[in-house]
Structures are given as C-alpha cells and as structure tokens.
Specification:
By secondary structure, this protein is an alpha/beta fold. It has 13 helices and 16 strands. The radius of gyration is 22 Å and the shape is globular.
Length: 465
C-alpha cells in the first residue's frame, strides 16, 4: 500500500481550510449531520473510534478458515425484483464543499446505527464541457424529490461557472451570462490533472473519482455514485440500500471489458454504484485505488476495467442461475441480479441490481424500453442516423461528446421515459422463472415500429432547440 498525505476540507462559503484533525472532528461531532438540531453528530460517531479526532480503529483480521466459512455461508438466492416507490418529501440537508483530497490508509468501524435517507449522498462528476447535461441531471434529481444530489466539479472553469450561477441566484441579480432557468447547485471540487490529451484527463478523472469516494467513505459518508448522463426515471428511496446488509450494489454493464464478459458471463458498470461506509468497502476502495496508480500509469486508469478485473478475481458470485439461457436477453446478457462475497477482503458483501431496474444497453431502433419499474437508464450513444439528422441543429454533434450526451438524455427521455413515445400496449416480460408474464401497468413497448416512435421522440427534442 502507498502512503498518501492527509487531506483537507474547505467549507462552502467561508473558504477556510481545515487540518486533518479538525476535519475529522467536523465529520464526527462538530456539526449537525443528522438534521435533528442537536449538533452531536452521533450518527457518524459510530463510524470512528471513541476518539473523535480520527484515531481509526483497526478491524480484526479473519483467518482463512473464517473466510471460507463466509464464502460457503452465502447460498445462491434470487434478489427480489425492485419496485418503484412514490415520491416522498424529505428535509433539505446542507452539505459542505469538499476540496481536492489526498487519501490516508485507515479503516473505520462497522455498526452504523440506522441512517436517515439523507445520509446517502448522490454524486456525479462534471467539468465545464459537460455542464449542460450536468444541470439537466441535477434538475431531474431535484424534480424527483432527492435532496442530497451533489455535483463534483473537476476543473476550475466549471467551479467558476457554477459559483457564478449560485452567486447570481443568491444576490437576485441579473446576469446576461446566466441562464434564467438555472437554480442553485450543490457542488464540491476534486480538481484533476488535465494532461496533454482529453484521454489523459478522463483517466485522471477515474482515478480521482475513486480517491474522492474513498475519502468520503472514511469520513462515514455512504454514496450513490452516478454519471451526469444517467437518466433517472422515478424516485427510489436510498435507505433500503443502506439497510440491505450489502457493502456495495452494482449495475450490470453490457460486454466491456469483453475478456471479463467472456470469462464471467457478465460485467459490472463503473458509473452506477452504491457504496456503504464500512471497513470492508474502504478496504476494497483502497485496493482499487492502488490498481489505478502504477509506475506505468501514475494516478490514471480506466476504472471500468480495474473494477471488473478486481471483482472477477476476488468475488464469489451466486450468479450461475442468472446465466441460464432462458434468463438472458436476446443479446446474451444477464437480466437478473445476484449477490456474492469477497474471498480476499473479509466481510465484503455485494449485490447486483436487475438490468431492468438499472438499465444499461444500446440505443437503437430494435430496442425494448425498460419497464415502468425502471429506476435509472444508461443508454449508449445515439444511433448514427439521429446524429446525422441533428447536424443541421448541432454541427458538432458527431464529434463533440458533450453535445451528443445532452441530446441523448433528452431524446431517450422522450422515447423511453415514463411517458415516452415508444411505450404502447401490453407486452410480455420474461419472469425470473423463465416464463412470460403479462405486464400491463409497467409495460415496456415492443420494438415494432421503433423507427417511427424514435422519430417522434426526435421531433420532441428538436422542438426544444
């Protein structure tokens, strides 16, 4: 393990930088984290040792025999299909602005008591290039009644841009450079190395995303890590994830990295993950961060590759049943979730969501929309014929990924959203037992006529330009 420097926290508004000791006090007892007004921070105190100044308690190392028992204890089981729940009102929770961190190797104790809904923070990373789609994501989360969603900004131009927006709204001033539809945005910063090429910046982002998550987890903060182009369709409470008994919950990817897919029969998505603040999760993230910091590629990596390599090597998954042919999609991909334990890191238990619940797939005319029970969709890039059609509106759409992403989320929402043009009639949905089920109240439209319905969605998007 590498020895990294301590980290600091910059409180939003006053610009003060805290030392490591002060920051740990801040997270453990120096502020009212639970929203109950008493300021005792007791809901995070159990995440540290009894000393609030950050003397992290070491976890007990299990023997290889205990690891084997833990592995054998988990029997194959089918996870319950996810059901969307109506929106619930929550109290607004204020958050501090997190400055660029360095991580320190330490662990926290398990045994958090029951956490309120606001104790899981939703984070998505963005630079100035992706600011338009980041705003779309943020407003969607607000409209769905989430209260902890936070942007993590990775370059100084983005920080200045969103600071200007927030200052303009706070001052009720008129600024011709600020969109009148912009609202206040919670954001934190994790500045990354731009490098000489866009690819270098992206790989630095993936390293810094892991680093950020690790520091948050050490501070007792559980996370829902998402991307700004992930399209949330409905409100889903976060507390059940926290109380599920799992340290992490992942979404299914399509087939990248292909060599992992060929071996495992599935791969997991690096951009849609629930992470609970536990000793085991911290240990996993420590290992992942080390994999992303090598002499050949210091502090740069493809986290999609590193995540799947590590989990393929270390996890014992109860996934055999889910890979039976009758349970696969037409493209041969796993549909239903499963769980497993980590044979290398004692106590780490993980789950995988059903594909329909956290949908990932190609955006094409032979698509079947996820059902109305879908929580979040992560479609691949727009079909080429749509990009070509949109060139008259966006001359850079074929080569500018930020323009394409903004068009993608809005066209998908018009196409396969709750009231999308591609949702018609009653369809057959393959059940967990392999048999077809009639689905009326959560129908996913069949692929027939997809070109026409996608054209309708395209017209809706064009009307907004």
């Amino acid at each position: 393990m590498k020895d990294y420097h301590n980290w600091s926290v910059e409180r939003e508004g006053n610009g003060r930088t805290f030392t490591t000791m002060e920051a740990l006090f801040l997270f453990s007892g120096g502020t009212d984290h639970d929203g109950d007004g008493d300021g005792d921070g007791s809901e995070l105190a159990s995440a540290t040792s009894s000393d609030h100044f950050g003397m992290w308690q070491e976890t007990e190392i299990q023997t290889q025999t205990e690891i084997q028992k833990e592995t054998e204890r988990v029997q194959p089981q089918e996870t319950t299909p996810q059901i969307s729940i109506r929106r619930q009102n929550q109290n607004q929770n204020q958050h501090q602005s997190q400055h660029q961190h360095q991580h320190q190797h330490s662990v926290i104790t398990n045994g958090h008591k029951h956490e309120q809904e606001t104790k899981v923070k939703i984070v998505a990373f963005s630079d100035l290039t992706y600011a338009p789609v980041a705003k779309w994501w943020y407003q969607r989360m607000t409209n769905l009644s989430y209260t902890t969603h936070t942007l993590v900004l990775i370059d100084n131009p983005a920080v200045q841009h969103f600071t200007n927006i927030n200052n303009s709204n706070n001052n009720n001033s008129t600024n011709l450079n600020i969109n009148i539809n912009d609202n206040f945005y919670r954001f934190e910063t994790q500045i990354v190395d731009d490098g000489k090429r866009r690819k270098n910046k992206v790989r630095s982002l993936w390293y810094n995303r892991i680093l950020y998550c690790l520091n948050q987890l050490k501070a007792g903060q559980s996370l829902l890590l998402t991307d700004v182009d992930n399209i949330f369709a409905t409100y889903e409470p976060l507390a059940p994830f926290y109380d599920s008994g799992y340290d992490a919950i992942f979404a299914l990817e399509t087939k990248f990295p292909t060599y992992i897919f060929d071996t495992m029969g599935f791969v997991l998505c690096g951009g849609m993950t629930f992470l609970k603040s536990t000793n085991a999760t911290v240990a996993v993230m420590e290992k992942l961060l080390d994999m992303c910091d090598t002499p050949e590629h210091p502090q740069r990596c493809d986290d999609q590759v590193e995540w799947n390599q590590m989990l393929a090597a270390d996890m014992v998954w109860n996934s055999t049943w889910s890979r039976e042919e009758s349970r696969l999609t037409d493209g041969g991909m796993v549909q239903f979730g499963f769980d497993g334990v980590n044979k290398a890191i004692p106590g780490f238990r993980a789950k995988v969501w059903d594909r329909d619940f956290a949908w990932r797939g190609a955006f094409s005319t032979d698509i079947k929309c996820p059902s109305l029970e879908n929580w979040v969709a992560m479609p691949h890039s727009l079909p080429d014929w749509i990009k070509k059609d949109l060139k008259e509106f966006h001359s850079r759409i074929a080569g500018d990924v930020s323009v394409e992403k903004m068009a993608r989320v809005q066209i998908w929402d018009a196409f396969c959203g709750k009231h999308g043009t591609h949702r018609t009639g009653v369809v057959k949905k393959v059940g967990r037992d392999g048999n077809d089920e009639d689905v009326t109240n959560s129908a996913a439209a069949a692929a027939d006529g997809a070109r026409d319905t996608l054209n309708e969605a395209l017209k809706i998007y064009k009307a907004t330009l």
